[in-house]
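Lab channel / #folding
Pinned by the channel admin:
"Please post every new chain as: sequence first, then the structure tokens as a reply. Keep commentary short and put observations after the output so the thread stays searchable."

First post following the new format, from NK:
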Amino acid sequence: MIQRIQTVYLLLGVLALAGLGVFEVPWGDRAATQFAWFVPSLVGLLVVTAGTALGAVFLYERRETQRTVVIGVQMLTVALAGVLYGGLYGAGTLTFTAPTGEVLWGRTGALLLPVVAYAFFLLARRGIEHDIELVESMDRLR
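Reply from TO:
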């Protein structure tokens, strides 16, 4: 299970999503106080997306099902990014720089984590598809 590269990518994607909880940006931002839906929907999507991705690790024996679940995880990650970026945009705080012009690295890191998680889930899906093709080619040789 752990020796497969898609397992590593899935775990890295889960860690990237979990890393969003470390940053203050989504939780202490003006969007959290301005919109009542922002924090609960963000927490719900984080838990569901990370939990589903973690559950996909254990579907390694059923590759087609694992691929379908990872595609769903990718869609959930896009929804998570949409809620995060939409809430911050609605509050007027979707920016990477301070008013003085300096780059806010904590905010930048928090805003890039859903994109990094999506990239890891995409790589995991490619690994799963490679395994499916490999098994199909071995079946043809028999």
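NK: Residues 5-141 form one domain.
TO: also worth noting, The chain is about 75% helix and 0% strand.
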